[in-house]
Amino acid sequence: MKIEVIYGMYSFPLNRLLLCIIILYFNISCDNKREALGADNEIRVICSEVDREAIQKFLSAIFTDTLYTPEPEPYYHLKFSDPSTYLDLRSQSQVVVAALTRDVGNPGYQLVKRILSPEQFSFTENQDPIILGKDIYAKKQLFMIINANSADQLMSTVNEKQANVRKHFHEQFIERQGRYIFGADRNKDLEDSLSMEFGWTLKIPWGWEMIKKRPDSNFIWLGKEMPFQWIGIGWTKGDIVEDDLSVGEYIWNWPIKNYGNIQINDHKFKLDKSSHNNYPAWRAEGIWETVDLKEAKGGPFRSYLFYDPKENITYHLNYLIHHPGNDKSIFMRQLDMVVKSFRIHTI
Known about the structure:
The protein is of the alpha+beta class.
């Protein structure tokens, strides 16, 4: 089998006609494939036990994103399986097949040899050990092959490959989750109401409702249950994003001022420069907690603060979740997609 590559550190020259034939072939063949299975925060890793430790070390160095809830929670959970499970797992949404130990008795090594063409096997073994393909066995799938001749060779590529690999996995998450949270059953009545009244739009998924609207205080509060999630939107005249001290103070005081019963804890609080769509922005993240210790609740939050010079308005988009004892990272990433759908009419 020959894996068609969407990311790799080598390429073979293709004339335009051949490229068109390949694209057409993929478009036709993809129509006959089912959609990939599996959770979008899981990566199914297929390798032999002898290579597992080194492969886990490499993938953990690539996928470093961690949510503090306050306990650390990775964006991706690595699920390891033996090469004998390959046929059962190859249609999962995110698959990694890996081999390091150069031994004919290593079933992972034999599996990689069967999957790759001779040219690809030779190149990955001797030069670039990573191939990443899309929609190989199912629609909306990422399929990675790791074929290195040693753990040292593989680890030496981390800095070079981290950004590109993470980019493809992030785009895969956005594509798969976007159809789920932004489907036809969105709360368009609420979307239209907010758009007409305030001059900005937000894609609001099914199940979200207005908790509080205070136009005189420039504050909108949206909520959803199961699990408990909030989105808060605030705005103020003028530019207040000039320096990190004023930004940090504004974001720190904002929850108690607007939600009324929660505050930010200094544990793992982080403030850095980012972007929100086409705007330069400040991004804050950390842990929120209730003021009343008798009804103690808490969890992760994130905020974006950015300035629109056309309207001379600074916007603050905040979201948080309370989901004790359960995975929160996938919900936080969904919330990030929602707040990044925020658009100002003047753009």
